[in-house]
Amino acid sequence: MTTAYLSHPDCRRHDMGAGHPECPQRLDAIEDWLIASGIGQTLDRHDAAAVDPAHLLLAHSQGYLSQITELLQACAAGGEPRAVDPDTVANAHTWAAALRAAGAAVQATDLVLDGQAENAFCAVRPPGHHATRDQSMGFCFFNNVAVAARYALDVRGLKRVAIVDFDVHHGNGTEDIIAGDERVLMVSIFQHPLYPYSGAVPKGENMLNVPLPAYTKGGEVREMIEAMWMPALERFRPEMIFVSAGFDAHREDDLAQLGFTEADYEWITLRIMDVARRHAKGRIVSCLEGGYHLGALARSVGVHLRALAGV
Ligand SMILES: [Zn+2]
Asked: Which tens digits make up the pLDDT trace of 145-164?
């Protein structure tokens, strides 16, 4: 069995302007590290397909989809870049990139459910976990993980899936979409208070939010994950696990103040795999979210992939 790796050149062309931390070079840094470390040779590479717009409606409203489609298509047709919030800008390539990013998550779900890969990682941008049912925000347009999780349930017929979000920011968009959907258990850690300043009070009983104060070290986070996430995941017995894999809790990342290292990302990946092996036939689809220090991002994705691929 292999680990599928999905990406697409379109995801590199989405650009929010000079100096923006969510930059195309993030994908270059990951690619360079895959080559330098040799991990790339062990992965089964796929070009990400564009998502079927009907599948976006599994997580987003028709009103939002119509409005954002019009805006992104206007940019793609040669219009000026357009800001959708103070941090989030669409350029001529954002439409294609956003379709590939969500499409990768859906395609990865099919690859894993069809037994063509044991697990999968989507090296895509724009990221997704801040995109709510009705709104793009925080560098995100479509909620890639929420779309794929709903696809696994509504189209592929699974009964229970888990979403694990270890990005340093609260996945408010994913929470907005899946809160109250008892077929999904979402477990997350995030620095609090920090953008988007939500998550301290969960929106639904299917959310297990673990807010962390700034400067929490990796060892303390591991203890909390062991004590809080693991019993909940064991009880829930997910048939598949989706991961919002943000690497901005790394100690070298300037967007937050947590103290994760590569060893912590390896540990967390192995713990997720352990649950997946017991309950979900090993099925994991992991999607890139944040991670803005290029070196730390590349090394952390490297250990995440090394663990997923068992090499
Ligand atoms: Zn983040």
From this structure: 999 999 999 999 999 999 99
pLDDT (tens digit per residue) in 161-176: 999 999 999 999 999 9
Q: How many A from CA of 291 to the centre of ligand 1?
A: 7
Ligand 1 geometric centre to CA of 246 (Å):
6
Is 192 among the residues known to form the active site?
no
Please give the model's pTM, rounded to 2 decimal places: 0.99
Q: Tokens 């895509």 identify what position?
A: 124
Tokens of 120: 């999968």
Q: Give the distance (Å) from ligand 1 centre to CA of residue 114.
A: 31
Distance 1 CA to ligand 1 centre (A): 31
Catalytic residue among 8, 14, 93, 130: 130
Cα separation, 142 vs 95, in Å, equals 10
Q: Rounded to an integer, what distance in angstroms lies between the CA atom of residue 308 and that of residue 144?
A: 20
Residue pair 291/297 in contact by the 8 Å Cβ criterion: yes
Average pLDDT of the segment spanning 257-281 = 98
